[in-house]
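At this stage, I needed to go through a protein sequence along with its fold in C-alpha cell form, as given directly below:
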Amino acid sequence: MEMKFSKEEYIGLGHVPIGIGAVIKGWNITERHYRNPDVLPVVDFRAMSPACPHDCFHCFTDKLKKTLTLDEIKNVIDQLAEMKTIAIDYLGEGEPTLDKDFFEIVEYTAKRGIQPIIYTEAAAKLRNRDFVRRIKKSGACVIPKCDSLWNKEFENWVVGDKTGKYFDLRNEAIKILIEEGFNKPEKDGSTRMGFDMVVCKKNMHEVEKTLRYCRENNSYAHKRRKKKNTGRCKKS
C-alpha cells in the first residue's frame, strides 16, 4: 500500500509519512512558524505537583514545591497564547497527573489554542479509563515513561519500585491508551501518543526494537541519553 505524507512541511522533517509515529502532535511545526521571531514553538512547563511515587535514577527535576497558583499558571498560559505558542510540554516537578489542578490546567491550555503534551509514568492514573477518556477529549498528547517495554526487572529498577508491580501497571495503561485511540493517525501526519526512553548501557540494545514497535503502533519515540553525573545505571 502506498504511504501517505502530510500536506504541511515541518521543520527538520519535511513532509512526514502518516501512520508510523513520525512526529507527536504539537511538535509538527512548520518552517514558517519556527522561523518567526515573534512566536514560540514549544515550551517546557514544570509548575505542577512535586508528588511522584518513584525515585528514577535519571530524574531531571528538582522535586521543588509547586510555587505557582492555578491562577498564576493560567496567566502564564495566557501569555504563551498571545505569543502563538504551538505546544506546552507538561513535564512536572513530579508526576503531572497527580496534580489536583491537572485537568483544569490541561483543558485551559487546549482552550487557549495550545497543544498540551503530558509526560507521565502512566501507572498511577492512566489505568482509569474515564481519566484517559477525559484526557483524550481535551485533545492532549500523552507520552508514557518507557525505559523498557520488555524487561520487567530493569524497568522496575529504574523507578526504584521494590514491589515489582510498576512494569505491569504501566503496560496496562499503555494498552488502555491504545484502545482509546491515542495512537490513531492524525490527518496532519502526527500521533497523540509517544514514549519517553532514557537510554543507558542496560537498555541500549532495545532501541531498535522499541523504534520498530513505535513505527508499527504509530507512536512517537522520544529518546534521551542518561545524564553522566547520575552514575546509578552502572549498578547491578
